[in-house]
Amino acid sequence: MDNPLVETMEPYASTIFSEMSELASRTGAVNLGQGFPDIQGPDFLVDLACDAIRAGHNQYAPRSGVPELRRAIAEHQRRFYGLDVDPDTEVLVTAGATEAIAATILAMVRPGDEVVTFEPYFDCYPAMVARAGGILRTVPLHFPDHALDEAALAAAFSDRTRLVLLNTPHNPTGKVFTREEMAVVAELAVRHDAWIVTDEVYEHLVLDDVPHIPMATLPEVADRTLTMSSAGKTFSMTGWKVGWVTGPAAGVEAVTSMKQWLTFTTSGPFQYAVAEGLGMDDAGYAELTTELRARRAQLLTGLAQLGVPTNRPASTYFALADFSGFGMRQALTEMPGFAEEHGFVGVPAAAFVTGPEVEAAGPLVRLAFCKREEVVTAGLERLAAARRPTAR
Predict the structure, then answer these.
(1) In order of start, what are the domains of the chain with their CATH numbers?
(2) What is the reported pTM?
């Protein structure tokens, strides 16, 4: 029988991350594509999760999340950003930020509605918009500086704009949007009566001296902003899949109505561990970025020595590199051969863009530096062996 997948999801039948990881596994390549750390998160969190399991927190958690975690999330928003969040009506715990984003789009986007986002984007955005019957309107952030084009952003809005989907700190560019840039987004959202959905999973992984500013702190859009984050990125526990949504009660209620038909609830024992983890002291949060900052420096320095152009990510796990010096023009089609020949895999950035941007992003590759020092070293050694002059 033919594959029964509905037509709207055929372009999204598999993720680029799965494809590149399978490629690395098959070829024995060094994998700087998959975006998760290969080191253990804080030991105290592991102990807390084990304690919760032994304490019997192994049945269904409440639909909106255990009260301890919802209170901890509300306190986190107050402590770091001065936001007053009601843990009973303005917090929803989800199975990672991906479910939060999916449930929000499925709950709020009607067929024909438009969703504005920046590209390159996280790959679940277009898939969920398509499944909801919406229309994605993208605004390019061009390599290497990823500056906001205000005219292009304004042109992406219309009287059919339903949501603005903003990712800051931004994957895969590492861009941290400034207050001035966010004010432009906010003004357009108000003008077009659109909701703003902010994906802020890298909020505690800012590596430069720039502030992360949640959109919800801009008073003119506080009543139309839903904020997503995740313990997986903050604590290097991506497999725990504990995320959340905060925002106006009406918006959170809408997302909850959809989430309950997806997973209903999220892993109970991990929620108790995350609830305590969010309350750790400032030194604990600062320590989370120390190793990541060192690995970023190692990767960017090594690539510079090889003459490989990159951006300079201020946050996240990732850097973008121009692989045209390796003779690469379209990484989407050429990465398999590169892996076979040179034993190295990254994620083609063209997987995160649409239309004419696919060609522009052709030689760009997303590289993850959230790896052990020896893994980054091995990747750089493979690239050094593969380096050759740019074809003209």
Answers:
(1) 7-41+289-386 (3.90.1150.10), 43-282 (3.40.640.10)
(2) 0.95
